[in-house]
Amino acid sequence: MRVDDGVKREILARTDIGEVIGAYVSLRKRGNDLVGLCPFHGEKSPSFHVHPDRGFFKCFGCGVGGDVFTFVQKHENVGFPDALRMLAKRVGVEIENEDPRAARVRSEREAIYHANDIARTWFHRMLLDGRIGAAARAYCEQRGITAATIEAFALGFAPDGWDGLVDELRRNGVDLELAAKAGLLKPSQRGGFYDFYRNRLMIPTLATTGETIAFGGRALGDAEPKYLNTSTTPVYTKGRYLFALNVARRAAAREDTAIVVEGYLDCIAVHQAGFTNAVAALGTAFTPEQARELRKVASRAILCFDADAAGVEASLKSIDVLATEGIAAFAIRVPGAKDPDEFIRANGADAFRALLDKPLTATQVKIDAEIERRGNRMERGALARWAEETIRRLSSPAEYDRWRTYAAGRLDLDPDDLRRARLMVETGHFTRGAGTNGSRHVVPGTIEKPTFEREVLSIVLDEPALIAEYAERIPPERFGSERFRRVWDALRTHAGSLAQPSDVFAVFAGDDDAAATLASVSGAVRLADSDDRRAKLDRVVARFARDDAERRYRELDGEMTRLFEADRPIPDMLRAELNALSSQLKKG
Fold it and tell me: In the predicted model, is pLDDT for residue 358 greater than 60?
């Protein structure tokens, strides 16, 4: 395929690289750049930078970089011609000099996207048809699905016939064999093809870039199976995509939280109730691929699976998968209902919001499930050992006493029974904190300390007057980096004379290393005004206090452990201090 260089330049000129990449990756503004988690390798701290003004991207973690064509090629796993066509279509540029034969033969993926789009449009039209779609619209009304929601999710209806979609695809010049490969049709034993979906509410799944990649067909009555779903195709692999991520990703990124439900209609009901950060796993449990997709937009997930045994089991498995991918997992239980859809219809959006406001930590969910599964079938000594082992497996050391108290209450034991049981449990059997990281938001635990030095120096470089205000509250010894510590210490010394950024640089005139350090943090944090900058610095100071409390908590826990192992009594003063710290840490 040969394309004139002028056409390529026009596509690049019309394309906003930030907008294109932002459809795949959650990006946040940082100075003139956009920053997010790299989609090409696993990472927990963002090192992926997009430079809209210069038209290229670069990951400082894995080294991948290039222009918007390069990004689309790598992310979509397509060649340059396909990437060119996709971007040309996006910005409305006609590729005039394409090779005639290549123009007649679309790539298989593009052709399937095209067939799926035609099918989606036809299904939607059938649902809105006054006569053909009457039963399906009545079903939607029965489920509480509004006309606005039907439009928002492009819901449709597959009539109870054998060739309605076949005829529509044929009219639009779609290769029927390829449509069968897309999962829309089935080959007939008598030759030809017939519609795969019949008499079903049709729910399309879209990629975050807008292409229709799959369908779910819900039976209107008692027909089995209840759902017919697209199987693996050249554009869709079950367990890789999340339903509704295309419409939920901006709200999820804004709140840094995604609500994860089990099925299509649960997800649609949650969106309709106003919770637009909901996605559906469309399977029995989360897969690592889905977790990585979710991690691109949020670091926190609230699981809301069905209340039956399969739903509970899916929640337990999902917690482990999410934790492995660095997502803090929580869960809610829907009382008196089998799923979120039923709960919302019975109790309303406010009741559902109340559940979301107080989610269960992942550690509690797993402990509760294990207690319910095994608690009544073990003698007291074995029960205490099992509970201690479970707590050590699912939580971090600083959380042990919190969960000992909780588990002992559930098991009608004394917390000290669990503490003594630790002596009978081989520590080699445990992987500390490997179970989940979700509990760190609620119970006393370790919080991963972000690097704050850059943020502090960047903020005071924008507003040097803040140095005097925070000089004593942020002591230099808190800085882990020697070069940042040296700069901060010098700024504290000259705090009274610093009013403008130029004053800061003047302090280090002739000191190339310090000047380079300041230049490296310039623009690392961009906040609107003094109030926002103070709020950020106050959070840094609060983090110091929490770090100190956690450090002391661990010291006390270690001392109590040594006393237990020596069979010596624990002083009341030690217990009181530990309990006070536990309460302090729980309050956040």
Answer: yes
